[in-house]
Amino acid sequence: MKPLHLIPDDVNIPFLKFRKIFYIVSMALVLASAALFATKGLNFGIDFRGGILVEIKTEGPADISGLRDKLGSLGLGDVSIQEFGAADDVLIQLQRQDGDEKAQMAALAKVTEALGENVTIRRSELVGPKVGDELKEAGFYSVVISLLLIMIYIWFRFEWQFAVASVVALLHDVVITVGFFVITGVQFDLATLAAVLTVAGYSINDTVVVFDRIREYLRKFRKMEIPDLLDLSINSTLSRTTMTSFTTLLALIALFAFGGEAIRGFTMALIFGIVIGTYSSICVASPLLIVLRLKRKIPEAEEGQEAKA
Amino acid sequence: MLYFTKWKAALVLLVCALGVIYAAPNFLPSGTFPTEASYLPGKQINLGLDLRGGSHMLLEVDTDSVLRERYDALADTIRTDLRQEQIRNRPREATANGAEITILKPEDVEKAREIARAAEPNTELSGEGNNIHVTYNAVARKELIDRAIAQSLEVVRRRVDELGTTEPSIQRQGENRIVVQVPGLDDPSRLRAILGRTAKMNFHLVNNEKTAAEARATGLPPGTMILPAADASDKAAGIREYLIDRRIVVSGDNLVDSQPTFSDGRPVVSFRFDAAGGARFGDVTSKNAGRGLAIVLDGEVISAPRINEPILGGNGIITGQFSVQEANDLSLLLRAGALPAPMQILEERSVGPGLGQDSVEAGEIAAVLGLVFVIAFMVISYGRFGIYADIALMMNLILVLAVMSVLQATLTLPGIAGIVLTVGMAVDANVLIFERIREERRNGRTIINSIDAGYRSAMSTILDANITTLIAALVLFSFGSGPIKGFAVTLAIGIITSMFSAIWLTRLMISVWVKRSRPTELVL
Predict the structure, then answer these.
(1) Which residues of B touch A152 (CB under 8 A)?
(2) Is residue B475 a contact partner of residue A152, using CB atoms and an 8 Å limit?
(3) Do A146 and A170 form a contact (C-beta atoms < 8 A)?
(4) Do B414 and A263 touch (CB under 8 A)?
(5) Reduced to 3 states, what is the DSSP secondary structure of residue A95?
(6) Better pLDDT: B94 or B142
(7) B466 to A205: CB separation less than 8 angstroms, yes or no
(8) How many CA within 13 A on the CB side of residue A230?
(9) Which of B505, B511, B507, B512 is nearest to B395 (CA)?
(10) Which residues of A touch B461 (CB under 8 A)?
(11) Do B472 and A259 touch (CB under 8 A)?
(12) What is its main location (chain B) (predicted)?
């Protein structure tokens, strides 16, 4: 049996020819995401906003509107009540209460009291204002620091053009993934932030593989025009890029379908991010090298070595 | 260089064998192996609270109140010394920033400063004009806070131990925080209730000149204060506040035991004083028959019985409208002792045992299915080589479990997601290598040369690609909390072990196959 080749061996897609289209599509997506982020904003979970979350299991299908009336009348501000994966599973979220941590505690006590004895509390989370602010800060720093470290690493390993292009592609992926969160309204909490950072790592990973090949071909095909060389590099790594994305997606789809409600948002973010990351490493990162005027830079010494080899 | 030296092959096999041995306890009932020695296999992976159920609480000790109390006492000491030298002065409200005293006559200031400086060691003096401002120096301040935190940790530990759960973990975090983790707790509200209270109990006499309402109307008599009534029966009788003497007649520090019990069929809390406390209690109750004795807990009067007869022997009971649970909790708090400073709960995350179990099951199903998908796909795509990659993939999972067991890392729900993600990404190295081998074959190299070149030229790519993901994982680990740390851990371990299994293990298998069957055609 001949093994399946997802991408035919003699694939030769002129990606660079379409690069204007990719730029336009990407710019549009990035700008739309940024605009959405600025206007509608992320649906921050209690990790970052502070507040209370209670997951309950009721006997028989939950009476959502009854719960809404009961908890809405407690005077605790916005109460969000939604079914969570099953008819008898309900997620209750309260906004951060005015006042200090004591006020949060009192509100949680009121909620558990109002829920009564007939429901099982499966999970309760309370994040006070102080911790919420700290988590927000830590989250921000973790994104900035990992992006910086990745950039520094790439800069060490490649020419500066590669570093800039890969970080632009990375930011592109992160911004659009955030835009995805705004559009879908999926809650943005610590887990989804972790997903975004993983997407960052993955996106770079994908880009690095293509760049590695470009670097190799730069040495190997000295006469080839840069755009042709980029196309050749993308095409010869295309099979790997799609294979890896595909296997990762397979695993993630299993996680999405069966991993339970609690990590669904997290998995969704990863799936979306990997699709975007694959697109950007093929269609954004490499073409950007032309914009950045990548040139052959062959030091004398290296040339001598190659001649000997 | 496809052929392995013997010792290299042995090393690869040894790592695999160790992985299997250290991962094995996770598939056997716990306790199968003795677990005394930390380097021997036998340990199972630590499940996080989100998977085994339990409560995580982050508490903050109000260190300002510790400092405020100390500065209050320091101001008192200085004023006593000043009075002896007949220097007239006026106290100011003590804050956490220092003790402050105003000297009334300018000519006394110089002398007063000297007295203040000599009052206690490790203090620093400042203030302008008539004001003297005394603070502890940084070392003394740190010591004060450290001692308060150490005491708080001890009290918290005693309180949590009273709940009778297994392996609670209580640790200091940062300057003034305490993390409490109690696995397998059914009802976090109980933990909340006993951790949220200072449990400072003192006995005061109820003032017999005025009622609280009269005092509110006409002014407080000197040396008294008004405290709210906490008990339901008081509230029912229309008593909302008590006017009590400021002076503490017996302090809760003198308590040695407390138990919930019943009196006239109602739950009450009994207590016992040490010798000094018992003597003072006997003395007070002898001299003040007919007056009310207020039992003040955390600034509220929980009960104020009339003293009918002297209570000698140092035993007593607190009556009130307690439920059985409340009586249990109160006696627990009194037994465990008061916190040196108030504490508040900054963050709580509790997961019931049912949800934890559900999460484990969901995670297992997802991991197995993800694995099956990927395994099947690899075989379809790469045939024989796909099978080698799949064996390496399984080995990788075993290694992840083994490393986590040895390090006693905590597996959380996002951690399971990290493992599933690793399944998808671990084959990447093999994909890179195999694709490269295909290319080399197309370029007309021999089988052995292609395989060799495939491994060699994929190497730097694999390293670059994995290191960038590793950077993201490490940053996540250092910034993330609880569950997210778990994700970072499995992702990082998975990346590192996958480099071993995907590169060395597959290479060993392929080299053995090439050596044995000397293939003339490469189906890839």
Answers:
(1) none
(2) no
(3) no
(4) yes
(5) strand
(6) B142
(7) yes
(8) 25
(9) B505
(10) 208-209, 212-213
(11) no
(12) membrane
Distance to chain A for B394, nearest Cα, Å: 14
Integer Cα distance of B375 and B387 in angstroms: 8
Going from N- to C-terminal start, the domains of chain A cover: 15-43+132-297, 51-127
- SS3 of A93, please? strand
Calculate ∠ Cα B479-B397-B361, nearest 5°.
Answer: 80
Which tokens belong to B39?
């380097």
Would you tell me which residues 209-248 of chain A have a C-beta closer than 8 angstroms to some C-beta of chain B?
A: 209, 212-213, 216, 236-237, 239-240, 243-244, 246-248
Establish if A273 touches chain B: CB-CB under 8 angstroms: no
Q: Do the Cβ atoms of A194 and B460 come within 8 Å?
A: no
Nearest CA in chain B to A251: B370
> Which chain A positions have a beta carbon within 8 Å of B393's beta carbon?
none
In order, the DSSP letters of B371-404 are HHHHHHHHHHHHHHHHHHHHHHHHHHHHHHHHHH
Distance CA B275, CA A96 (A): 49
Tell me if chain B has a CB within 8 Å of the CB of A48: no
Q: CA geometry: angle at B512 spanning B510 and B518, to 5°? A: 90
First-last CA distance in chain B: 20
Query: Which among A138, A200, A216 is the nearest to B472, CB-wise?
Result: A200
Contact (CB, 8 A) for B377 and A145: no
Domain made up of A15-43+132-297: CATH architecture: Up-down Bundle (1.20)
User: Which architecture does CATH list for A51-127?
Assistant: 2-Layer Sandwich (3.30)
Name the residue among B365, B419, B416 with its Cα closest to residue B396.
B419
pLDDT tens digits, one per residue of B480-515 = 776 778 888 898 999 999 989 989 999 999 999 988
Q: Which domains does chain B have, with CATH numbers?
A: 6-51+353-517 (1.20.1640.10), 63-141 (3.30.1360), 204-332 (3.30.1360.200)
Please give the DSSP secondary-structure letter assigned to residue A263. Answer: G
Q: How is B275-343 classified by DSSP, letter by letter?
A: HHHHHHHHHHHHHTTTSBEEEEETTEEEE--B--S---TTEEEE-SS--HHHHHHHHHHHHH---SS-E
State pLDDT tens for residues A41-69.
898 888 888 899 999 998 888 888 888 88
pLDDT confidence tier of residue A308, bands split at 50, 70 and 90: very low
pTM tops 0.90, yes or no: no
B253 and B239 Cβ atoms separated by less than 8 Å: no
Partner A contacted by B138 (CB < 8 A):
no
